[in-house]
From TrEMBL:
<dbReference type="Pfam" id="PF04248">
    <property type="entry name" value="NTP_transf_9"/>
</dbReference>
<dbReference type="InterPro" id="IPR007361">
    <property type="entry name" value="DUF427"/>
</dbReference>
<feature type="domain" description="DUF427">
    <location>
        <begin position="16"/>
        <end position="103"/>
    </location>
</feature>
<dbReference type="InterPro" id="IPR038694">
    <property type="entry name" value="DUF427_sf"/>
</dbReference>
<protein>
    <submittedName>
        <fullName>DUF427 domain-containing protein</fullName>
    </submittedName>
</protein>
Length: 107
């Protein structure tokens, strides 16, 4: 990481449920919490706990100098709602095979 920029990843201690339009998109007791300088805490959920059948890959890719290149998925009424780092940088390797949502309901 660069000076003044930190990322920490730790196991979450709560049940995470992601809802959209009244439908459960993901539920997990195994989410990772990623905290990054200047960003809100993000919950990265194991792919096995996400309803991938409801999501459609989008053509969007973004690059983070600290985490790597992200790929995105959409719902019919929510573009690029979900992202993941298929090949994250070594410093954040724990988020491989995990997906993150913009809006989560932590319950």
């Amino acid at each position: 990481m660069t000076e003044g920029h930190t990322i920490t990843i730790e196991p979450g201690d709560r049940h995470i449920r992601v809802m959209h339009g009244g439908q459960v998109l993901a539920q997990s007791d195994r989410a990772l919490v990623l905290r990054e300088t200047g960003c809100p805490p993000r919950y990265y959920i194991p792919a096995e706990d996400v309803r991938l059948d409801l999501l459609t890959p989008s053509g969007t890719h973004t690059h983070c100098p600290f985490k790597g290149t992200a790929s995105y998925w959409s719902l019919p009424d929510a573009a690029d709602l979900v992202w993941a780092y298929p090949d994250p940088k070594p410093e954040v390797a724990a988020i491989k095979d995990h997906l993150c949502f913009y809006d989560v309901d932590v319950s």
